From TrEMBL:
The lineage of its organism: Eukaryota, Metazoa, Chordata, Craniata, Vertebrata. It comes from Enhydra lutris kenyoni (northern sea otter). Its main location: cytoplasm. Residues 1098-1171 form the Gelsolin-like domain. Residues 876-960 form the Sec23/Sec24 beta-sandwich domain. Residues 1-78, 220-254, 309-443 are annotated as: Disordered. This is Protein transport protein Sec24B isoform X4. GO terms for cellular component: COPII vesicle coat; cytosol; endoplasmic reticulum exit site; endoplasmic reticulum membrane. The gene is LOC111153827. One of its GO terms (biological process) is COPII-coated vesicle cargo loading. Residues 559-595 form the Zinc finger Sec23/Sec24-type domain. It comes from the Eukaryota.
C-alpha cells in the first residue's frame, strides 16, 4: 500500500468536529477491492470456511438448489493474505479507540490513487479520522469505500438462472426468484405470497406519535468549543462559574464562553477527504506515515487453529458427574424448524431483513454488502412493451470486515443515498432511469388504465402540503414562548411523549412508531442553511429489533424494491397507475410485479396499494435463498467463565449455573442449537461434552502464549443430544474450584481460544470476568488514581490502554461472532479497554460493581434477573442493517455497538431487542422540490430458528422552509439522546471538559438563535419555545450523570460504563437514566389508573427532581432506569409503612431493604402493581432500594435530584442564569 496522497486542502481542522462524535459512516468501513471476493459467511470474509457438519438439516422453508453451495474453485478460492486482509487491517489498530483507521494521506506518493485501477471513484464519507474518538477533524484524509468488483465469475457455481413469467413456478426450485418480464397471466396460475398478519388493535402504536427534533436559530457568531464543523481552534475561555459560595469548587468543564455551536455550515466540504471512524467523530489526521498494511499484519492477533502440541493437555474426568447415564439414542428425531407462518414463530421471531426482486440475468451476489447493498447496474434495455427485469436482490446481510480498498481517490462528498452505493458496477453511479420510465408503457396490460384513489403518496401530498407554514396559521402550542426564569413548573405531570409529525391523518396512521424510529426534528429544514440557523442537531434514533406484539410477517417470492436505490416498497410510495409505482426516496418509477397485484389478505386482485407492505410502515419479510451466502447458521452459545480466586469468592458461578439450568430449554434456537463452556484462571480449561461420554471431561491447556484447541470437534455440542452432560457440568462447576488459590486471570488467551472455537459457525460468546486481566495477551495494568475521582479538571484514561481487545473484536465480527461482557468486580478492571471487545463485535456489556453473592444480595438478585432476560430474549445472527434516506439527505456518523461496513451499512454479528442506535444527518442538497422526506432502515438477520428475515421500518416527515416550523417540530428527548452520544465521543477524543462545554453551548446557541426570531424580546428574559422548554433541564441532568459529572467522586469504571450505556441504549431507557422520574406513592389511588392484564395500575403524577417536592410525611419512588429508590420520610404515616413495607413504624424499617413484601392490603397491591408495571420490558432489571430519611444511603438518592445545587454543580435556576448570561454576552 502506498502512502496516501497529499490533500489538496491544507489542514484546516484544528477545531473539534461539529458533532460530538460517533461512528462515522465510513470510519470503520472496510470496502472490498476489485477482483474476486473471498468466500464469505452472511457477513465478514473468511478463509476456506467449510459448512460445519453440525448444521444438520436445512430449515423447512429453506430451498437449497443443486450446486447452490458447491465447493467450486471460484467460490472457495481465497485471496492472497495481503489482498484479503491487508486493506481490512490497513492501519486499523494504530489508534485503539477508532473502528477503522485509514492510512495517513499527508505524504502519499503521486499516483497512489490509481493503485486499484478498476472501477470509478466511490462515494466518500465525511467523518472522523484515525482516532475513533478524536474531535479535531482533518480534511486531509479520506476513505475509499467503493467495491466496484464484478460477480460474473461466480455464475458458474450456481444453477443457471431461468426466465419465467408470473405464472411460472421456477422459483420453487430454488433458483433466484427472477422476473425477466411480467407477462400477463391468469390470476389462478400465479404464485401468491402467504402473509402472517395479526390484526392490529385500535390502539396500535404504529403511527400514533411521531418524533420531533430540536432546532434553534442563532445569529450569533459560532462558539469555539461547540459541535460545529468550522475549522477553528478551540479556545478555553473562562470556566463556568461555580454556584455562589462555592467558587472554589467550580469545574472548569462548564466553560460558558467557548460555545459549541451546531452550525452545520462547518461540516467538512465536499472537497475534503476525511475519514470516519466507528464512533463518527471527526478526528485529527494520523501523523504516523508508516501506518501501512504490513504494519498491521506483522503481528497477527489470531492464529489458525493449531494441531495438538507438546503443551501440556491434562484430561480430567469431572467429579460428581453421573457414570450410569445412558447416552441419548442415536436415532433421536430431529426437531423440524418451525414454519415461518406459524403464529408461535411469528411471535418469537420479530426481526426481518430485506429482500428484493431478482433478475434472471443477474448472478448470485457474493458478499453481504451486495445482498442488502446499493444497486446493481440498471437494465436500460427495457422497451415500452417489455419492462426491464428487476435487479438481483441485495439483502441486508451481515457484512464481514471485507478487504478494504484504501487507495486514495479524488475527494468528493458521498452521493445521496439511493444512488451510488459501494457495490455499484463501473459507470453506473450516475446512471439515469430508463427513458421511458416515466411514461405509461404501450403494453396491452396498461392501455387505458387511469390513476386511481389511494392513500396519499409523495405526489398527492406535494400539493396538499405545499402551503404548509406554521407562521401563516394560528401559533401552535409548541411555539408558545416561555420565560424559563419565571416558569417554575415546566415539567409536565405526565410522561413526555414524542411529538407527532405535521402530516395528514392518513399518513399519521401509517407512520412508523416513534418507539422504533424517531428523528430529532419532526419538521425537516429545507436547506442546510436553515438547519444552521436553528442550531439544533439533526439525526435519527433507532430501536430496530425491539419486541413487538403486532408485526406483519410476509412470505413472498418477490420482495418489491426500487430498482435504483433498493428501497423496499412502503406506505409512502406513489402508485402512478396499477402497474407502476414511484420510489419515495430516489423518485425512480418502477414496475409492479405480477405477484404483487394479488392481495393475500383480501384475496383480491388488482389493488397493489392495499397490500400489507403498503399499509404498514413496519413489516418483516421471510427472505429467500437469494439473501444468503451460506445456509443459515445454527444458534451457537459459548460461555467463557473466570474461575480465579476472586471469581470463586464473589460466588457468581452459583447464580450463573442455576440460571442456565432453569433456562436451558428456553435458549433461542432449533434442533441444531450448539453450546460450549470454557473456564480460565492462569490456564484455560475446555470441556468435552460429546454425546456418548458418561461424564464431562476437562481438558487443560497451560500454554497461554500459543493457544490451541485440544479437541475442536467436541467442544461445541448439540444442546439436545448432550443435555444431560451439560446439566452435570453446570451442577458441578460451582464447587469445582472452591479451593483454588490462583489469583491470575488469562482473559486474553481465553478469548483467543473462544475466537478459534467459534470461527467455523459464528454465534455468541458470553464472557464473565471479575478482575483486571493479568496474564498473557491483553494483560492490563491499573490506571485509576483514586485521588482523582473527584477531580474537576482532567479525567484521564477514558479510552482503551491497548488495541488487543479491539483487534480481537473485529476478528470476531469478521466471523459473525459477538462477545458479550459481564464484569463483576469490586476493584478497578479497566472497563475502558475491556469494553472494546463488545463495542466492535456488536455485543453488549453488563456491569456489577462490588458484586458479592452474600455481602451484596441486591447485586446478586440483579444478576439473576438480568441473566433470565439475557438467556431467553430473542436474538438475530449474522445481521446487517442499512439506513436509507431521501435524495438530498446523507448520514455521516453512527452511534452504537457495531462495525461500520460501508457508508450506510452496519455489520452486526448479533442483534438483540435491547440494542439502540443513533445516526447523525446532514442536508447535502436543498429539499425545495419535495414536501416530504422519508427514512428507511432494513435489518437482515438469521433468526434463532434458522430463517433469513428482513425487518423494515419506514418513517415519513414533512419538509418546512421557515425557522418557526423547524422549532415547532423539535423532539427534545431525541435531541438530548443524540447529544449525549456525541458528548461521549467528544469526551474520549478530546476531553471531558470539552464535552461538557459543548453540551452547555448547545443550549446557549439554540436559545440564542430562537431569541433572534422573537419580536419585543425583553433583554433580561430567557425565552424558549414550548418545544424546547425542557432542553436546559435535560442538559443539566446530563451534566450531572456519572458519565459527565465532575467534582463528585466517581470511579473510572462507573464513568466508562455510564458512557457505554449512553451509546447503546434505546431512547426510552436512556431518558430514564438521564432524567429519572419521581412519584409520590403514599397516596396512590385508582383515579386515572390503567388496566394491564386484568390488574389496575395507578398513574401518579410526575414530580420535579427537587428536595422541595419531598415531604417528611410522604413516601416517594424514583425510577432511574436500572435502579429504583423508595424514600421514606421520617414522619411517614405508620399505616402506609405497615401496609406496604410490613413494619409497624419508621424506626423498625431495616437500613438495607431491597424487596416489597406481598401483603394482602390495598396499598401494597397498588404499590407493587405500579412498580411491576415500571419494571416490565426493561433490558436491565432494576434493583430496588428502600431509603430511610436521614440514613447514610440517602446520599445516592439525593444525587439524582438534579434541580438542586451540589458542591460542584449548579441548581437548575442557577444554570438558567448562567445560560442567560452567556446569551447576553
Amino acid at each position: 500500500m502506498s502512502a496516501p496522497a497529499e490533500s489538496p486542502h491544507p489542514a484546516a481542522s484544528a477545531r473539534i468536529s461539529p458533532k460530538l462524535g460517533g461512528a462515522t459512516a465510513s470510519g470503520a468501513a472496510a470496502p472490498a477491492g476489485p477482483g474476486p471476493a473471498p468466500h464469505q459467511q452472511n457477513g465478514p470474509a473468511q478463509n476456506q470456511m467449510q459448512v460445519p457438519s453440525g448444521y444438520g438439516v436445512h430449515p423447512q422453508n429453506y430451498i437449497a438448489p443443486s450446486g447452490h453451495y458447491p465447493q467450486g474453485p471460484g467460490k472457495m478460492t481465497s485471496l492472497p493474505l495481503d489482498s484479503q486482509c491487508g486493506d481490512y487491517y490497513s492501519g486499523l489498530y494504530t489508534v485503539p479507540t477508532q473502528n477503522v483507521v485509514t492510512p495517513n494521506t499527508a505524504n502519499q506518493q503521486p499516483g497512489a490513487q490509481h493503485m486499484y485501477g478498476r472501477g470509478p471513484p466511490a462515494p466518500h464519507i465525511v467523518g472522523s479520522t484515525p482516532g475513533s474518538f478524536q474531535g479535531a477533524a482533518s480534511p486531509t484524509l479520506h476513505l475509499h469505500t467503493s467495491a466496484a468488483q464484478r460477480y460474473s465469475h461466480f455464475v458458474n457455481h450456481y444453477s443457471s438462472p431461468a426466465v419465467y413469467s408470473a405464472n411460472s413456478s421456477v422459483a420453487s426450485q430454488g433458483f433466484p426468484s427472477t422476473c425477466a418480464h411480467y407477462a400477463m397471466s391468469t390470476v389462478s396460475t400465479a404464485a401468491y405470497p402467504s402473509v402472517s398478519y395479526p390484526s392490529l388493535p385500535a390502539g396500535d402504536p404504529y403511527g400514533q406519535q411521531m418524533f420531533t427534533s430540536q432546532n434553534a436559530p442563532t445569529v450569533r457568531p459560532l462558539r469555539e468549543n461547540s459541535f460545529s464543523g468550522h475549522s477553528t481552534a478551540i479556545s478555553h475561555p473562562s470556566p463556568l462559574p461555580p454556584p455562589p459560595s462555592h467558587q472554589y469548587h467550580q469545574p472548569q468543564s462548564l466553560s460558558g464562553c467557548s460555545t459549541l455551536s451546531w452550525s452545520a455550515s462547518g461540516l467538512p466540504s465536499t472537497q475534503h477527504n476525511i475519514v470516519r471512524n466507528h464512533t463518527g467523530s471527526l478526528a485529527t489526521a494520523n501523523s504516523n506515515p508508516t501506518n501501512t498494511v504490513t504494519d498491521s499484519l506483522s503481528c497477527p492477533v489470531m492464529q489458525n487453529v493449531q494441531p495438538l502440541k507438546s503443551s501440556p493437555v491434562v484430561s480430567t474426568v469431572l467429579s460428581g458427574a453421573s457414570s450410569t447415564r445412558t447416552p441419548p439414542a442415536a436415532n433421536r428425531t430431529v426437531e423440524p424448524v418451525a414454519s415461518v407462518t406459524q403464529p408461535s414463530e411469528l411471535l418469537q421471531q420479530k426481526g426481518v431483513d430485506s429482500s428484493s426482486t431478482t433478475s434472471s440475468a443477474s448472478p448470485m451476489p457474493n458478499s453481504y454488502d451486495a445482498l442488502e447493498g446499493g444497486s446493481y447496474p440498471d437494465m436500460l434495455s427495457s422497451s415500452a412493451s417489455s419492462p426491464a427485469p428487476d435487479p438481483a436482490p441485495e439483502p441486508d446481510a451481515a457484512p464481514a470486515p471485507a478487504p478494504a480498498s484504501s487507495a486514495p481517490q479524488p475527494s468528493k462528498m458521498a452521493k445521496p443515498f439511493g444512488y451510488g452505493y459501494p457495490t455499484l458496477q463501473p459507470g453506473y453511479q450516475n446512471a439515469t432511469a430508463p427513458p421511458n420510465s416515466g411514461v405509461a408503457p404501450s403494453s396491452p396490460g396498461y392501455s387505458g388504465f387511469q390513476p386511481y384513489a389511494q392513500y396519499p403518496g409523495m405526489n398527492q401530498l406535494s400539493s396538499g402540503l405545499g402551503g404548509l407554514s406554521l407562521q401563516s396559521s394560528p401559533q401552535p402550542e409548541s411555539l408558545r414562548p416561555i420565560n424559563l426564569t419565571q416558569e417554575r413548573n415546566i415539567l409536565p405531570v405526565t410522561p413526555v411523549w414524542a411529538p407527532v409529525p405535521n402530516l395528514n391523518l392518513d399518513l399519521k396512521k401509517l407512520n412508523c412508531s416513534p418507539d422504533s424510529f424517531r428523528c430529532t426534528l419532526t419538521n425537516i429544514p429545507q436547506t442546510q442553511a436553515l438547519l444552521n440557523k436553528a442550531k439544533l442537531p439533526l439525526g435519527l434514533l433507532l430501536h430496530p429489533f425491539r419486541d413487538l406484539t403486532q408485526l406483519p410477517v410476509i412470505t413472498s417470492n418477490t420482495i418489491v424494491r426500487c430498482r435504483s436505490c433498493r428501497t423496499y416498497i412502503n406506505p409512502f410510495v406513489s402508485f402512478i397507475d396499477q402497474r407502476r409505482w414511484k420510489c419515495n426516496l430516489c423518485y425512480r418509477v418502477n414496475d409492479v410485479p405480477e405477484e404483487f397485484m394479488y392481495n393475500p389478505l383480501t384475496r383480491s386482485y388488482g389493488e397493489p396499494h392495499k397490500r400489507p407492505e403498503v399499509q404498514n410502515s413496519t413489516v418483516e419479510f421471510i427472505a429467500s435463498s437469494d439473501y444468503m451466502l451460506r445456509p443459515p447458521q445454527p444458534a451457537v452459545y459459548l460461555f467463557v467463565l473466570d474461575v480465579s480466586h476472586n471469581a470463586v469468592e464473589a460466588g457468581y458461578l452459583t447464580i450463573l449455573c442455576q440460571s442456565l439450568l432453569e433456562n436451558l430449554d428456553k435458549l433461542p434456537g432449533d434442533s441444531r442449537t450448539r453450546i460450549g463452556f470454557m473456564t480460565f484462571d492462569s490456564t484455560i480449561h475446555f470441556y468435552n461434552l460429546q454425546e456418548g461420554l458418561s461424564q464431562p471431561q476437562m481438558l487443560i491447556v497451560s500454554d497461554i502464549d500459543d493457544v490451541f484447541l485440544p479437541t475442536p470437534d467436541s467442544l461445541l455440542v448439540n444442546l439436545y443430544e448432550s443435555k444431560e452432560l451439560i446439566k452435570d457440568l453446570l451442577n458441578a462447576l460451582p464447587n469445582m474450584f472452591t479451593n483454588t488459590r490462583e489469583t491470575h486471570s488469562a482473559l486474553g488467551p481465553a478469548l483467543q481460544a473462544a475466537f478459534k472455537l467459534m470461527s467455523p459457525t459464528g454465534g455468541r460468546v458470553s464472557v464473565f470476568q471479575t478482575q483486571l486481566p493479568s496474564l498473557g495477551a491483553g494483560l492490563l495494568q491499573s490506571r485509576e488514581d483514586p485521588n482523582q475521582r473527584s477531580s474537576t479538571k482532567v479525567v484521564q484514561h477514558l479510552g482503551p490502554a491497548t488495541d488487543f481487545y479491539k483487534k480481537l473484536a473485529l476478528d470476531c465480527s469478521g466471523q459473525q461472532t459477538a462477545v458479550d461482557l459481564f464484569l463483576l468486580s469490586s476493584q478497578y478492571s479497566d472497563l475502558a479497554s475491556l469494553a472494546c471487545m463488545s463495542k466492535y463485535s456488536a455485543g453488549c456489556i453488563y456491569y456489577y460493581p462490588s458484586f458479592h453473592y452474600t455481602h451484596n444480595p441486591s447485586q446478586a438478585e440483579k444478576l439473576q434477573k438480568d441473566l433470565k432476560r439475557y438467556l431467553t430474549r430473542k436474538i438475530g445472527f449474522e445481521a446487517v442493517m442499512r439506513i436509507r434516506c431521501t435524495k438530498g439527505l446523507s448520514m455521516h456518523t453512527f452511534h452504537g455497538n457495531f462495525f461500520v461496513r460501508s457508508t450506510d451499512l452496519l455489520s452486526l454479528a448479533n442483534i438483540n431487542p435491547d440494542a439502540g442506535f443513533a445516526v447523525q444527518l446532514s442536508i447535502e442538497e436543498n429539499l425545495t422540490d419535495t414536501s416530504l422526506v422519508c427514512f428507511q432502515t432494513a435489518l437482515l438477520y438469521t433468526s434463532s430458528k434458522g430463517e433469513r428475515r428482513i425487518r423494515v421500518h419506514t418513517l415519513c416527515l414533512p419538509v418546512v422552509s421557515s425557522l418557526a416550523d423547524v422549532y415547532a417540530g423539535v423532539d427534545v428527548q431525541a435531541a438530548i439522546c443524540l447529544l449525549a452520544n456525541m458528548a461521549v465521543d467528544r469526551s474520549v477524543s478530546s476531553s471531558l471538559s470539552d464535552a461538557r462545554d459543548a453540551l452547555v453551548n448547545a443550549v446557549v446557541d439554540s436559545l440564542s438563535a430562537y431569541g433572534s426570531t422573537v419580536s419585543n424580546l425583553q433583554h433580561s428574559a430567557l425565552i424558549a419555545p414550548s418545544s424546547l422548554k425542557l432542553f436546559p433541564l435535560y442538559i443539566l441532568a446530563l451534566l450531572k450523570q456519572k458519565a459527565f459529572r465532575t467534582g463528585t467522586s466517581t470511579r473510572l469504571d462507573d464513568r466508562v460504563y455510564a458512557m457505554c450505556q449512553i451509546k447503546c441504549q434505546p431512547l426510552i431507557h436512556l431518558m430514564k437514566m438521564i432524567h429519572p422520574n419521581l412519584y409520590r406513592i403514599d397516596r396512590l389511588t385508582d383515579e386515572g389508573a390503567i388496566h394491564v392484564n386484568d390488574k389496575v395500575v395507578p398513574q401518579p403524577p410526575l414530580q420535579k427532581l427537587s428536595a422541595e417536592k419531598l415531604t417528611r410525611e410522604g413516601a416517594f419512588l424514583m425510577d432511574c432506569g436500572s435502579v429504583f429508590y423508595i424514600w421514606i420520610g421520617k414522619s411517614c404515616d405508620n399505616h402506609f409503612i405497615e401496609d406496604v413495607l410490613g413494619y409497624p413504624n419508621f424506626a423498625s424499617i431495616p437500613q438495607k431493604m431491597t424487596h416489597l413484601p406481598e401483603l394482602d392490603t390495598l396499598s401494597s397491591e397498588r404499590a407493587r402493581s405500579f412498580i411491576t408495571w415500571l419494571r416490565d420490558n426493561r433490558p436491565l432489571s432494576p434493583v430496588l432500594h428502600v431509603v430511610k430519611d436521614e440514613s447514610p444511603a440517602k446520599t445516592e438518592f439525593f444525587q439524582h435530584l438534579i434541580e438542586d445545587r451540589t458542591e460542584a454543580a449548579f441548581s437548575y435556576y442557577e444554570f438558567l442564569l448562567h445560560i442567560q448570561q452567556q446569551i447576553c454576552k
